[in-house]
Amino acid sequence: MSLHKEFQNLENYMNSCIIGQPDLVRKLILALLCNGHLLVEGTPGLAKTKTIKILSGAISANEQRIQFTPDLLPADITGSDVFRPETNQFLFQKGPIFSNLILADEINRAPAKVQSALLEAMGERQVTVGATTYRLPDLFMVMATQNPIEQEGTYTLPEAQLDRFLFYVKISYPDIESERKILKLIRKEERQEPLPEIKKLTEYTIFDARQEVANIYMSPEIEEYLIQLVMATRHPEPYGSDLDKYIGFAVSPRGTIALDIASRAHAWLSGRDYVIPEDVKAIVYDVLRHRILPSFEARSSGITAEKIIEMLLQRVPMV
Predict the structure, then answer these.
(1) In the predicted model, is pLDDT for residue 14 greater than 60?
(2) Distance CA 303, CA 316 (A)
(3) Does 83 map to a domain?
(4) How far apart are CA 166 and CA 291, in angstroms?
(5) pLDDT of 96 over the 70 cut
(6) How many angstroms separate the CA atoms of 168 and 302, rounded?
(7) Mean per-residue pLDDT, 17-39
(8) Residue 101 CA from chain centroid, whole number
(9) Is pLDDT at 152 greater than 70 in this prediction?
(10) Do 151 and 239 reside in the same domain of the chain?
(11) Residue 84 placed within a domain
(12) pTM for the full model?
């Protein structure tokens, strides 16, 4: 069986276990293929925690859930040196960050120092305690969540830290048909009926898939289109005076890199060995919505980052 077919089976399996959130499932698999991280915003009860657990069980990986709270300390995530009286030495006790899949639940509830400890591990793939640096697992991905309905006692992630995430995914309630399927699935679990099975993917399968994604062909025209989309956020004047006054902060080169790898991963997962414009449009909102900072005038006019991206797609032509 081809590698992309195995990942398509993984996506189908997860959608059979997680009802009503196909976009979250796809973006989670794409982030895995891109060796990136994702931030998920949604109200409680939308199966965010269950999704990461289902994925960890399907790829033979261990996972840890970290509940972020205002009293959390950086050492609660990274680990710390613990004194052992029997040996009269300090021994490093690893924290939950030393796992393959990390669910950082309600990341905006922890203060900046704790957020930075996690985001440094995401960016550098290592943890430094004292004078010693410890490498994180080769297979390492963070899915952080935010609750949009409660802002009291939260610490908003700075834009510079948001840039560490490959995707910023917003999820909503399932439709009525999905709600019916959710009830049926929960009743099966209550009766302890067996759920669908899947051949588990190993980390070496994931690494091989990432190599295939890196080899996906992107034409010079589409590559130039990606670059022009990003450049339009930095120099929007040619695309309209309104766009110029709506963008307060533009997309960094990290955004261009994310658009490139995510477009190729989407093409690969769709069974193609080349990128088409639809691949770019399928991921552009989740890649750019946290990298474009609307100006004060835009916010006061109700213009969101999503609206700015929509304007970019309408006005930036394919080369």
Answers:
(1) yes
(2) 18
(3) no
(4) 10
(5) yes
(6) 20
(7) 93
(8) 12
(9) no
(10) no
(11) no
(12) 0.92
Residue partners of 92: CB distance under 8 A and separation at least 6: 79, 80, 81, 82, 129, 132, 134
128 lies in some domain: yes
Q: Give 138-148 pLDDT, tens digit per residue.
A: 999 999 998 87
Do the domain assignments include residue 62? yes
Determine the residue type at 224: E
In terms of C-beta density within 10 A (0-12 exposed, 13-18 middle, 19 or more buried), how is residue 276 classed? middle
pLDDT for 1 beyond 70: no
Which of 190, 207, 241 terminates a domain? The answer is: 190
- Tell me which DSSP letter residue 318 carries: -
Q: Which of 140, 173, 190 is the last residue of a domain?
A: 190
For residues 24-63, b (16+ Cβ closer than 10 Å) or e, as one string? bbbbbbbbbbbbbbbbbbbeeebbbbebbbbbbebbebeb
Question: Do 182 and 233 belong to one domain?
Answer: no
Question: What token pair was written down for 189?
Answer: 């679990």
Q: Are residues 26 and 142 in the same domain?
A: yes
- The answer, yes or no, to whether residue 258 has pLDDT greater than 90, is yes
How would you classify residue 108: left for phi > 0, otherwise alpha for psi between -120 and 50, otherwise beta? alpha
Expressed as residue numbers, the domain containing 280 is 216-315
Q: How many domains does the chain have?
A: 2
Stretch 79-108: mean pLDDT, rounded?
86
Return the CATH number at 259.
1.10.8.80
| Sign of the CA dihedral running 212, 213, 219, 223 | negative
